[in-house]
Amino acid sequence: MTITKIKAPFRADQVGSFLRPERLKEARLQKQNGEITAEQLRSIEDEEIIRLVKKQKEVGLRAVTDGELRRAWWHFDFLGGLVGVEFYETDSGLQFHGVETRAHGVKVTGKIDFDQHPFLEDYKFLHSIAGDHVAKFTIPSPNMLVARAQVDQKVYPNQESLIDDLIRAYQKAIKAFYDEGCRYLQLDDTSWAALFSEESREKLEKNGQDPEKLAALYARVINESIMNKPEDMVITMHICRGNFKSTYTSSGGYDYASEIIFGGLNVDGLFLEFDDERSGGFESLRHVNRSNLQIVLGLITSKFGDLENPENVKARIEEANKYISLDQICLSPQCGFSSTEEGNLLTEEQQWDKVRHVIEIANDVWK
């Protein structure tokens, strides 16, 4: 028997990104070296996205994404496309455990706005090939600009004015995606992870930031950004602890910020990492205070190819069920397979085995 849930997020769902095909990696290098045009690169991207969407349908996913195949980064590409935001070369990359990303970043150089963003065309293409499946699109949470961007103090002498413009820009973005047909939008957010461990909170305090006030700010930015969303649009949020070449940036359970995450955010669903001990236990789910909040348990790791014991995964779902209804639970990988174009350390075959694993376990649980 197949899963019958008809509204996103689905019992077997996904976070978004997929490994970049070798053909696409080669084409990017050719474009960078001036060997092919931007139009030729986009044509190759189109072909690879068509192939990817077909594969997602074949394995049994209800929602399909473009795998973020057109992006170099899960967040900078979108943020850099906002009015008033630019890419720049940083002195060093983002630090992950044992590895460092490329030295790129974004900076705010003008008033923030949303207008003619290239991601709208990206969504329109995905929508055109989704067919009977739901076209799911992912963008970074507005909190990522707060957490990651260098801000010109002449443009925004105080954070409050920046926040107000950022919220308005995201409200416009959500309406623009909706107008193009988007009914399933996901906000990806690593900013919350800085609140999870005592060590990271101490680091914030040393930098003059109050973790409690920061959590309240993050919640306000999310809630006000999505406050005008249409009733028939699903907006979820993925909370991540970092995902680059199968490594991570932070650890810690959800406990410190659990009341505000599970009881104070107005999203329709939360994609949560629960694939290893770094994510803590399910006790924080006791703060879920509404029956229409879907909790997508990321119990299947996207970082490595070995398949989890399905009985262990089912047991963990049962454990989460002690705190929330089974009707509110869904299953997914803990993150995407390729948050940046470099990708995690597993093969495409292993990637699809992981997706099938999610679907098969979900079909067993929600018969």
UniProtKB/TrEMBL annotation:
Broad class of enzyme this protein falls into: transferase
Residue intervals passing through the bilayer: none
InterPro entries: Met_Synth_C/arc, UROD/MetE-like_sf
UniProt keyword terms in alphabetical order: Methyltransferase, Transferase
Organism domain of life: Bacteria
EC number from the UniProt entry: 2.1.1.14
One Gene Ontology term from the biological process aspect of the record: methylation
GO molecular function: 5-methyltetrahydropteroyltriglutamate-homocysteine S-methyltransferase activity
Matching Pfam families: Meth_synt_2
Coiled-coil boundaries: none
Start and end residues of each Cobalamin-independent methionine synthase MetE C-terminal/archaeal domain: 14-341
Record NCBIfam families: PRK06520.1
Name the UniProt record assigns to this protein: 5-methyltetrahydropteroyltriglutamate--homocysteine S-methyltransferase
Organism listed in the record: Metabacillus rhizolycopersici
